[in-house]
User: Fold 3'(2'),5'-bisphosphate nucleotidase 1 from Salvelinus namaycush.
Amino acid sequence: MSGNPAVVMRLVASAYAMAEKAGAIVRRVLQSGELGIVEKTGANDLQTLADRLVQQSICASLSKSFPKITIIGEEDLPEEAIKEDLIESGQSEDILQKSCPAEYSALKEEELVVWVDPLDGTKEYTEGLLDHVTVLIGIAYGGKAIAGVINQPFFNYQLGTESADMGRTLWGMPGLGAFGFELQEVPDGRRIVTTTRSHSNKLVTDTVDAMEPHDVIRVGGAGNKIIQLVEGKASAYVFASLGTKKWDTCAPEAILHAVGGKLTDMHGSALCYDANVKHMNSAGVLATLRNHQYYASRVPQSVLQALKP
Assistant:
């Protein structure tokens, strides 16, 4: 586009470059063999050196380029000087060339909230399930997810690809579209549910069963599950439990909405991404590319009663 790009387009273009750098950091830490694993609340809630370095990189880079935005990251890290080589100041020229949807063209920095998950699927990362791992940068305005960037650091790793050619970055914005992947749908009539791999319980299994799926996929990472929806590997992401946080869902929701999908809690209510909301998605997550109402209507009453927003 000609002239000065809108603030939100500059932010997305920067987030894209930051996500690419993050992917390189995630690969580098794995190659070093020194993951620096610490348990946060237990064996299913881990943090690695990659989580720490990526959050420092993304948050410091965002703060430097966009000092007035609100940034909320998953990791609770001490204040410390950030090494210069972690700062990313580049931008995606392709994104800067796109026309900003009119409703977002006048947004100011201070109106935007960025939700950062530096490593979604940390447990899988430590176990070598590398295709589950994503870096998530979600942008919200007025409580809604309006843009999202997802980096998959190890996309194509099974092909034995050289590290420099590994990985990909997807991004999307409702009203503009989604990029970096080929949109596909599950064959008509097939109900394939993707759900949690390591955080299951009776509420989760009861809800999955109520969907009467033809197949169930259990994988790690919220970002990974949304990618399954938009690439035709699953028709619904069903997680009827506490567990996901706003930084897990903001970026994926924006990309899903950009292609006509829907992400809500188990009651069918929209999630809110204001800076002051509670971080936990306490009423679960239900996401679909199509036919959201079918899946929402199948959620058992006992589950709805157990999961209060």
In short: The radius of gyration is 18 Å.
